[in-house]
Amino acid sequence: MKRKNIWGIILASGFSKRMGKPKLLLPYKGKSMIRHVLDASTNSCLNGVIVVVNSDIAGLQQEVRSSSVNKLVLNDEAGKGMSTSLKAGVTNLPSTTDAAVVLLGDQPLVTADDINEVIRCYVSNEAPIVQAQYQSKRGHPVLFDHSMFPYLFHITGDEGARSVLKKFANQIRLARLDKPYPEDVDTLEDYEELLRKEVR
Fold first, then answer.
1. Which residue, among 31, 28, 67, 71, has the nearest Cα to 48 in the 3D structure?
2. What is the dihedral of CA 193, 195, 198, 199, to 10 degrees?
3. Prior bond to 141 cis, omega within 30?
4. What is the spatial distance between Cα 110 and Cα 62, in angstroms, rounded to a whole number?
5. CA distance 118 to 114
6. Which of 158, 150, 104, 103 is nearest to 128 (CA)?
7. Beta strands 172-176 and 71-74: pairing type?
8. I want to staple 175 with a disulfide (CB 3.0 to 4.6 A). Which of 85, 118, 162, 181 is the partner?
């Protein structure tokens, strides 16, 4: 069987309004939060990685460019919501892409092993969508087979791909990860909780 060409799309073009400062550049365990996601992606089995960033966030482009990701995409429509970032990422995938794994730039606790487990589930089951299932709930990474890409172009606003997941709910395979849900870091309280866990 031909090896699948699977790419990652890291969504990193939010405005960090609830944080009040660029959250993706905040330090965690000796490097920025976004760097953890960049490193997890590039150390995984993904064939390539695209990062979609907000061009208005100072320093973010430089941080991404200093990593070994394959492509940096500037989202000038970031103000219209997460859907614009996802569509920009899918638009920039190579035409030979079999599937895309969507990751969030504010989830530094997601590891290369987590990404690889989602990929393994996809390769084993040929499912159109594979979603990570943590101990408590589902979340990212989420993999979309190329057959799902046309549906991703119809999403709007800040919903991300929620409507696509709902539409094809009965076709989703779950990659079961035996670990707590890696919470998003949206507020200063979220970040402080992340740092408290670091020293436990």
1. 71
2. -100
3. yes
4. 22
5. 7
6. 150
7. unpaired
8. 118
Mean pLDDT of the chain: 88
**79 φ, ψ to 5°?**
-65, -15
Write out pLDDT tens, residues 139-183. Answer: 999 999 999 999 998 887 777 788 899 999 999 999 999 998 887
Classify residue 18 as left (phi > 0), alpha (psi -120 to 50) or beta. alpha
Give every residue of the chain whose pLDDT is below 70, as ranges: 1-2, 15-21, 198-200
Residue 1, pLDDT score? 43
Tokens of 5: 């060409």
Strands (E), 3-64: 6-12, 27-28, 31-32, 48-53
- Look up the pTM and report it: 0.92
Q: Token digits for 33?
A: 């939060």
How many other CB atoms sit within 10 Å of the CB of residue 22?
Answer: 20
Start-to-end C-alpha separation, the chain: 45
Q: pLDDT tens for residues 54-64?
A: 888 878 888 89
Do the beta carbons of residue 132 and residue 121 sit within 8 Å?
A: no
**Total count of residues recorded for the chain:** 200
100 has which bridge partners?
A: 7, 144
